[in-house]
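Title: Prediction job returns without error message
Component: structure pipeline
Severity: low
Priority: P3
Assignee: unassigned

Description:
Job completed but the reporter wants confirmation the result is attached to the right record. Sequence as submitted:
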Amino acid sequence: MTQTDEKKLDAFLHKSLRRILKIYWPMHVTNEEIRRRTGMETISRQVARRRCSQNGSQLTSKNCTHMGAGRQKKEGSTAGDMAQNCGKGA
């Protein structure tokens, strides 16, 4: 998943949660506060966590690089590269 896709999915999540909680734009509530109130994490984080768990790694694994700043897909990377990033091949 590209960063553009992640941003779009996260924006959809935040917009939907704001509607459910009846929080309108003049209220100036941050996305982090909305996620804290609902107990949810971003969709991009959920996808990354599930990717790592499917490859035999756990979220707490230090080898899983789907989390954090280094999650951009490099040109020419393959599914095997993703498995190594999740600790399976490392």
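Comment from assignee: result matches the submitted record. Confidence is low (pLDDT under 50) at residues 69-74.
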